[in-house]
Amino acid sequence: MTAYADSPYPIGTPGTPWNETEKHQWLCRQQKHRLYSEQVLPRIQALGDRFDIEQYGELDYQQLPAGTPAALSGHYPLLAVKSRSPSHLPLVLVTGGVHGYETSGVMGALMFLEQEARNYSDSFQLIAVPCVSPWGFETINRWNPHAIDPNRSFGDQGQAAEAQLLKAYIHALGVAPVAHIDLHETTDTDNTEFRVALAARDGVTNKVWNIPDGFYLVDCADRPQPAFQRAILDAVEKVTHIAEADPDGKLIGTPIEQFGVINYATKKLGLCAGMTDAHYTTTTEVYPDSPSATPEQCARAQVAAIAGGLNYLRTAAR
Fold first, then answer.
1. What class, spelled out in words, does domain 28-316 have in CATH?
2. Which end of the chain has fewer CB atoms within 10 angstroms, the N or the C?
3. pLDDT tens-place string over residues 249-294
């Protein structure tokens, strides 16, 4: 089921958390597979005739630890796309690429901006951040170069710059979002690499779960909005299939709340979807490794999720 489930991860000593030496060993194993400057930035910049583009920070990964391959370094402007909507309209935040390897989150956010966003500019102020973690996007990784998961870093003690720069930008707006839709994927590599590496880094036992075949959502356990989630799934179901629960009634080890939905304590866990006090939040999860889905379909499912959520909010406001 997984390449490392029954054998130690190739870095570190089982049961012992990594120190800086092991983290550097992990970093040196990474490779760049694609470029943010070629596949993401031009598409954002091309939106400048229709939206306002704001740089809310930058990641300077030019000076990585001694001995790191030079090809892993990089400097990344962090960009947000804002609709030119009246300031009295409710604010909705869309984020993608918090885990850079989750490709459809990035591509879905860009596709939504290119094809659908202006259909909602009379109802909402929209802010979309298509690629929160560009180094992770380039290296197809869950972590940043310091072996930190940005999607566990949106709390007050978070250490990932990717998370804290975005959080500071949204806070500085002085306007609380009414909704936040965060775009993610669950992949086979979650079991074969990323969760195994996490267990090795923290010196704990890895818990392997079945990867759901299909689309599902993660709601906030502290302020759940089941009707909002249902509206999103109804829209997505027109594009791709919704994940069935496993025989124990769970998705990724968590009991379902309704078909296709589980709840997490998003704020407590430092997840991106919990970084504001937005009343309506969701984290999408697409399964790109499904034999029944294509990369284009996964991106379109993300677009459908955003549109489904916005349509629900627009109807609820009437």
1. alpha beta
2. C
3. 999 999 999 999 999 999 999 999 999 999 999 999 999 999 999 9
SS (H, E, C) the chain: CCCCCCCCCCCCCCCCCCCHHHHHHHHHCCCCCCCHHHHCHHHHHHHHHCCEEEEEEEEEECCCCCCCCHHHCEEEEEEEEECCCCCCCCEEEEEECCCCCCHHHHHHHHHHHHHCHHHHCCCCEEEEECCCCHHHHHHCCCCCCCCCCHHHCCCCCCCCHHHHHHHHHHHHCCCCCCEEEEEEECCCHHHHHHHHHHHHHHCCCCCCCCCCCCEEEEEECCCCCHHHHHHHHHHHCCCCCECCCCCCCEECCEEEEECCEEEECCCCCCCHHHCCCCCEEEEEEECCCCCCCCHHHHHHHHHHHHHHHHHHHHHHCC
**Domain limits, the chain:** 28-316
Q: What is the pLDDT of residues 287-318, one digit of tens each?
A: 999 999 999 999 999 999 999 999 999 998 66
pTM of the prediction?
0.96
